[in-house]
Design brief:
With about 230 residues, this protein is of the alpha+beta class. It folds into 2 domains: about 50 residues, Arc Repressor Mutant, subunit A; about 170 residues, no CATH class. The chain is about 20% helix and about 35% strand. It contains 6 helices and 15 strands. The strands form 3 sheets. Strands 4, 5, 6, 9, 10, 11, 12, 13, 14 and 15 form a 10-stranded antiparallel β-sheet that branches. A 3-stranded antiparallel β-sheet has the order 1-3-2. A two-stranded antiparallel ribbon has the order 7-8. β10 and β11 form a beta hairpin. α1 packs across α2. It is elongated, with a radius of gyration of 19 Å. It starts with 8 loop residues before the first strand and ends with a helix.
């Protein structure tokens, strides 16, 4: 069930079922103060707004396909890494792996119980006429899936939307937005990344440190690409 379809007030057992954890875990987090709850007589209830804001709950839950939800685990710092791009990338032609000095890891749980490992790498690279734009690479299940590119001040970043996850097609202005992106901030890419050769496609836009939104965009694309392959 998508987060938006949950009732306004939930029983602890309903929270446990939704997050796919034991009911005891929910009660433990209520007792520890990590999850706000209200008491009505001898019963405990959790408001949906408290579930969204608490550190116990995922930061974001969105629908990636009919009947499927994405639950993002806590994002943690991880050691720097290097990535060797395929032959069409300029760095690959120079036979140089790209270095990501700042990196994070997390995982995403799908509604079918599958868990996808996520690696996030942060670097600077030339784009749209600027030699040192912030670039944030999201690697899903071992495959580079989405790149976010910084605006001129790098406090906002944009990641292109591809309607079926295809590596060549960009979502153009006026095309229908895939339903999974309905709750995210979407705008023309070249309104955020201004300069020569900036794409005119539609992009997910977020703060440069909003890794949860970036991960969600990457997993949505991963899911769309998988669905397109049948």
């Amino acid at each position: 069930m998508p987060f938006t379809d949950l009732p306004a007030v939930l029983k602890p057992e309903e929270v446990a079922s939704y997050l796919q954890v034991r009911p005891e875990t929910v009660y433990e987090d209520i007792t520890a103060g990590r999850l706000n709850a209200i008491r009505i007589g001898n019963e405990l209830r959790i408001r949906k707004e408290d579930l969204l804001s608490t550190s116990f709950a995922p930061d974001h839950v969105v629908t990636s396909a009919p009947g499927e939800s994405l639950v993002v685990a806590q994002i943690e710092r991880t050691p720097a890494f290097e990535w060797k791009w395929p032959s069409e990338k300029s760095l690959a032609k120079e036979n140089k792996p790209e270095k990501f000095a700042e990196a994070y890891r997390t995982s995403v749980r799908l509604s079918d119980g599958r868990v996808l490992p996520i690696l996030i790498g942060i670097t600077d690279r030339s784009a749209a006429g600027k030699p040192d734009r912030e670039r944030i690479l999201i690697i899903v299940n071992g495959a580079p899936t989405v790149e976010f590119v910084g605006s001129d001040d790098s406090r906002i970043v944009a990641g292109i939307i591809k309607p079926d996850g295809n590596s060549q097609r960009h979502l153009r202005n006026g095309q229908p937005l895939p339903p999974a992106y309905a709750l995210l901030d979407t705008r023309p890419y070249n309104e955020i990344v201004c300069g020569p050769h900036a794409s005119h496609g539609i992009a997910v836009v977020c703060d440069a440190d909003d890794y949860n939104t970036m991960v969600l965009h990457a997993v949505i694309r991963w899911t769309l690409k998988r669905a397109a392959r049948g």
